[in-house]
Design goal:
alpha+beta; 2 domains; eight-stranded antiparallel beta barrel; 6 helices; disordered N terminus; binds S-adenosylmethionine
């Protein structure tokens, strides 16, 4: 796919040539606004369904589409998957159309469309966030998405989130895709990992966790001991942590957010770590454990 470079919110970003042309044209006429940065291009129905399936959307989900266009993702989430949903969109005519489409689809009571800037939208009520935006916009949203409740699913059509690698990606053939020569779409899924980075304490034990998105490494040390009892690394899948460092140390931990502060429960361990199963850790106070 041919790509060109376009300035977006102060940074130069590479986009597919067609999209870049429309953005540069808007800039040349002086009409640069958020919708020029992210033009209205619909996600084809096949891709919409694949996005919602990838996120495992069901009747207990609340789907938030950031830049909801004509409302199709939120409407499909409600009609086909039984979810509730909110679409935020800055083009008033698209918001009006989305409401009309929701009524026609018989899901007006389960969905809402607001004329609202996605950057001013509270993301917290969502259990699933969907996006068909642009790479730079995804990156701008990344810190806010990472701060969502652990386990929240994020699905993006085509664009990724840089160093925050997706938990799963798939590519679909899309003959009716409106842009690009390849006629393919990517769907990327992220599951918000629990924020476990830092020092945790349980009795006389100190657990130091270093986290980079869904990866972590940890060392456990008993008070007064010269060397760590155990060193391991692994993955954070929502609120579940599990080791991937071989059979010598297998461990499963679970993160729980509580009003009094987060807790890390060490559910299962093997090898040198087996004595620690059943322990619950809390974040270290400023003075340490
Ligand atoms: C590529 S379209 C995707 C539409 C729809 N989500 C879909 O996948 O079919 C992006 C949409 O985001 C809207 N948009 C752009 N900037 C926005 C902003 N700051 N706040 C809300 N909507 C925005 C555009 O008007 C456009 O309708």
């Amino acid at each position: 796919m041919k790509r060109a470079t376009v300035p977006v919110r102060g940074a130069w970003v590479r986009f597919p040539a067609l999209l870049a042309l429309s953005m540069l044209a808007a800039m040349a006429t002086g009409r640069v606004s958020a919708q020029d940065e992210v033009p209205f291009i619909t996600t084809p129905d096949r891709v919409t369904v694949a996005m919602l399936e990838a996120a495992g959307v069901g009747a207990r989900d609340h789907v938030l589409d950031l830049g909801s266009g004509d409302g199709r993702i939120v409407i499909t989430a409600a009609k086909r998957f039984g979810a509730t949903g909110l679409g935020v969109e800055i083009v008033p005519e698209l918001v009006r159309k989305s409401r009309e489409h929701a009524r026609a689809a018989g899901v007006a009571a389960r969905v809402e469309f607001r004329e609202q800037d996605l950057f001013a939208t509270d993301l917290a009520p969502a259990t699933v966030v969907t996006m068909y935006l642009l790479p730079e916009v995804n990156l701008q949203l990344r810190p806010r998405l990472l701060a969502l409740a652990p386990g929240t699913r994020i699905v993006s059509h085509d664009w990724d989130m840089g160093e925050w690698l997706p938990d799963r990606s798939l590519t679909l053939e899309v003959p009716d895709k409106a842009i690009g020569r390849e006629k393919k779409s990517s769907v990327h899924l992220w599951i918000v990992p629990a924020p476990v980075h830092g020092t945790w304490c349980a009795g006389g034990a100190r657990l130091e966790v270093t986290q980079r998105f869904q990866r972590f490494s940890a060392t456990l040390q008993e008070r007064g001991a010269l060397a760590p009892v155990v060193v391991f690394d692994g993955r954070v899948d929502g609120t579940a942590l599990h080791t991937e460092s071989g059979p010598a140390t297998q461990a499963r931990l679970s993160y729980q957010s509580r009003p009094a502060g987060a807790e890390l429960h060490w559910l299962q361990a093997s090898g040198v770590a087996s004595a620690h199963a059943g322990r619950s850790f809390v974040r270290a106070a400023a003075a340490g454990c």
